[in-house]
Amino acid sequence: PVEMPGGDREAAFRTANIAPSATPGAYTFVCQHLTPDVVWRTDYLDQPNAVVGVKEVVGVADDLDAVARAWEAIAPGNATIDGDTAQIDFGNAAVTFLTPDAFHDRFGTQCAAPTAMGALVFASSDLDATRRALAEAGIEGSLIAGPEAAAGITMAFVAA
Description:
The chain is built from 5 helices and 9 strands; from the N terminus they run ββααβαβββαβαββ. By secondary structure, the chain is of the alpha+beta class.
């Protein structure tokens, strides 16, 4: 149940799991919101850190070709490999895999072990507000929160 101005309502959704072999490095599912008006409310979505969405989920893999081929099963024709990066484009967001060295170069942190997800990149509508929120959390001078400050993953923030 979700507390609503006119009384409690049930949030309803349907999920489908995707075979782990199709999405190496991640447990993946899709979710159909049957009551979006209950869940996707402005009073829930406006955040002090100005985040408006997920821009990218980033993992580490030793074998980028194998990862891209597997993910293509759920995103046919949308996987590309360029040097030390494999990216699967989902339109408004991407799943990216980097080699361990490229992950470190990009984020300044390590990922647990290949093949695994290691970072979330969030889109911010106001990077100054994001910086203030990070500073309040003890992360100053950067738009990247390392795994020690972010529940074991790296979080980065970019302009929406």
